[in-house]
Specification:
By secondary structure, this protein is of the alpha+beta class. The protein contains six helices and 25 strands. It folds into three domains: about 120 residues, DNA Polymerase III, subunit A, domain 2 (DNA Polymerase III, Chain A, domain 2), CATH 3.10.150.10; about 120 residues, DNA Polymerase III, Chain A, domain 2, CATH 3.10.150; about 110 residues, DNA Polymerase III, subunit A, domain 2 (DNA Polymerase III, Chain A, domain 2, Roll).
Amino acid sequence: MEFIIEKKNLLECLNHFQSVVEKRNTIPILSNIKIFSDSESSLTFTATDLALELSETVLANVTKKGGFTVASQLFFDLIRKAPDNCKITITHDEELKNALVLFNNSKFNFPTMSIDDFPVMDKKDLNEKIDLDAKELKHLIDNCKFCMGVDESRQYLNGIFFHKSNDFVSTVATDGHRLSKCSLEKKVDLNFEGIIIPKKSVFEISKILDESNEKVLLSFSKTRLKVEIGEITLITKLINSTFPDYESVIPQEEDQIMQVDCKKFSETIDRVSTISNEKFRTVKFKINENLCVVSSSGNDKSTGTESIDVQYKGPEININFNSRYILDVLSLIKDGKVSFNFSKKTSPTVLKSDSFKNVLFLIMQMRA
């Protein structure tokens, strides 16, 4: 195999694979990236960790077709350090199992492994399909991913639940302490109960979407999901479990509503929480008519208090939150008014914003 490719194109492609390839593997070939071509004008790069497979096609001048695998990290480090704007020539000797990399006055040899030993994920029977704009899928993923769980004993929480809710495509993520639900304002004709996309795959999809404005095709079954975005294809295994009945924890009565400026409230909480216990990051809200007093205390008996004007009429509310959970939500909403919808004392609090439509955030209160 032999090909010539621009450094810029090669580096941009290789950069997409660095978090897919596991640095330490008991199976050596999983540390490699597969390079293959059956065309004179393009190459396909593939990496996998057996649960996730990422492929990308890039333009190149292929003078001899074929394929090989090479150590991903070492190859990436070399290409990254190559001079800008140079052309890179790579020749693979199948008998010697060696790849020769040439640019300017440099020459490097890399050992290779056969593509015949490179694992391939099953792409069959992905019968459910849906087209979305990149910005729509980005909305569904990016406004939920921060709520994904980290508890290995509850794998079903360690991802995003992609499903149909009231005929709309929706995503939900929760770690048991907070929850985010996002929906699209368009009905879809899908016949499925929902799938749970694993955390690593969620982050990889999100990174690809950051660089794309193209249409996205999702094809899936109960066990696998394929995401096609331009020249990039991602295939992932799904979490084989049942997502909890999240609707049952969303309060239906919201009879005590506080509205406050998002940016100002975020700054207040950030200042007051500076002295809070680092483990729990607790802040207390004392809410009376049109006023919220935010307070916190530290391990060394330090305290902090700040008042902020709000829109609220109703009985006095005293409630504690993890400040990080509140700040995460406010950092997404960014501007405008945010509504805190309080219900019974033991119920979670729902956060919404007119400037952030079709998204609902839910946060459990902390005990004093």
